Amino acid sequence: MRPHRLALGIVLAAILLWLAVMVIALRALTLPDAAIGTVLVVFSAAVTDAAALSAIVDSGGEPIRQTGLGAAWVAHSVSPGFVGQLRQRGAIAAFPDVPFGPVLAGCAGLVAGDARLTRLLLPPPPG
Amino acid sequence: MGQMMRQSWRTPGVIITCGCIIALIGFGVRSSFGLFTEPLSAAQGWNRDVFALAIALQNLVWGLGQPFAGALADRFGAARTLAAGGVAYAAGTALTSVASTPVALYASTGILLGIGLAGASFAVVFAAFARLVPEERRSWSLGLATATGSLGQFLFAPMGQAFIAAYGWQTALVLLAVSVMAIPLLATGLAGAGEPRDDAIAAANRAPLPPVAVQVQYAFGHGSYVLLFIGFFVCGFHVAFITTHLPPYLTDLGAGAALAGWAIALIGLFNVIGSYTAGVLGARWRKRTLLSGIYLARAVAFTLFIVLPKTPVVVLSFAVAMGLLWLSTVPLTSGLVAVMFGPRSLGLLFGMVFLSHQVGAFFGVWLGGLIYEQTGSYDPIWWLSAALGLVAAALHWPIAERPAPRLAGATA
């Protein structure tokens, strides 16, 4: 048994399986062309920030923020067919504005942002 | 290694792969529960404190149940314990999706899931590895199991978010329950824990197992175990404090969501590397020395983080450092328990140490919030964390890394 090779194999297999499941889930999440509202729009990594901004504005949308991934933007529009317009201008996909992101968990798997637990353990505020 | 499992499909590679995937699923699914707070509470019309109490109850049951699950694994085999725990874990997850009253939620998410987590936890996987993997590979395998568990936390959170968004929170819970059902199947790869072929391990596993109360009494009569028990409290304190309070702390500093997100991602990513490396190093160097070094490094990292300006470079460097030091204590601490008391008692006695960790986690979360509310600053708790790091480094230094005297004859 080659330990490091086995370790690498387990990690790679887990990541590949995860990618497959994520592709299925993300396909189910993809918005139709007619969708409007606040969306997470993904461009190719080769698209510059200026080009992405211009694509959003030209599609009748308003850029809200750029995500940490750079090529993904949160944008909003009530123009009919907003998502279809984005696709015509080079967007790879558009999703609902779901809070994708890493979470932090310790040995107990307690998730960051779960500060409600803290609130529960604290004495009630005065008054 | 070659002598081990000669005539069985349960080769060391199969054993380690099955155990690691169990750790990955067990850790991963658990870390996605926080994502359900909002959709579940909104759908049921409950205050968020209902779900929070269920999670708090779950942690309590898990922490208290871990020594019992470990004792069952030591006595009846890790595979059976993991299989039963996996069924309870999956049932609790699935039942959470249909819990329509707070009491039903406390019973499913709180109690049943807490029992399941104890039975299907990495501590039980460690017990299996300690019994089945030769001593020269033990530390590495414990590090790998911790690393894959850490990877599970990293992978399952976005998957849980995607499931909730794509299929709704109830279906997402059922899908997670289905993935947990893989644990009982994978546990078959760890069956036969009592009859490995490796002579040294077989000798250790044939040693008579004293009653639980006697084992616990032995352990707490051994000074090095007590030091380890207290030291792991500090690990729980650090990890739970940072997990809960780092994101709001960074937000208070005006770091921005993107920087906070990258910091969290870096901790998760480097945690995988740190856990694995700790396991590898634990096979070559003294575990107690490594543990002292890890806690000392944490103290230094906390101090630098407090005194340096919180530029993006400092925040991200702190995240990398904490990631490397995050769960790297786990393979070394569990490995030390195995050295002191042998593989047969690891489930119970590491479970006890884990209970200390959970108590530390409670105080890390609680004191972080309490001190912030009273002083309006996280600085005092950062300083306390640095001081505790120094205390833990000092506590681990004198640990005797050899079999405990009264059980010396029963260890591998």
Chain-wise SSE layout:
The complex is a heterodimer of chains A (127) and B (412).
Chain A: H1 3-29, E1 37-43, H2 49-58, E2 62-66, E3 72-77, H3 82-88, E4 91-96, H4 116-121
Chain B: H1 12-31, H2 37-44, H3 48-76, H4 78-96, H5 102-119, H6 122-132, H7 135-167, H8 169-180, H9 182-187, H10 199-206, H11 212-220, H12 223-252, H13 257-282, H14 287-307, H15 312-325, H16 329-341, H17 346-375, H18 379-396
Helix pairs in contact in B: 1-6, 1-7, 1-8, 2-3, 3-4, 3-5, 3-6, 3-17, 4-5, 4-6, 4-8, 6-7, 6-17, 7-8, 7-13, 7-16, 12-13, 12-16, 12-17, 12-18, 13-15, 13-16, 14-15, 14-16, 14-18
Nutshell version of this structure?
The complex is a heterodimer of chains A (127) and B (412). Chain A has 127 residues and is of the alpha+beta class.
- What is the H/E order of chain B? HHHHHHHHHHHHHHHHHH
Say what oligomer this is: heterodimer
Element-level helix/strand string of chain A: HEHEEHEH
Shape call of chain A: elongated
Outline the low-pLDDT stretches of chain B. Answer: 1-6, 408-412
- Average of the residue pLDDT scores of chain B: 88
Biggest interface: A-B, 44 and 81 residues
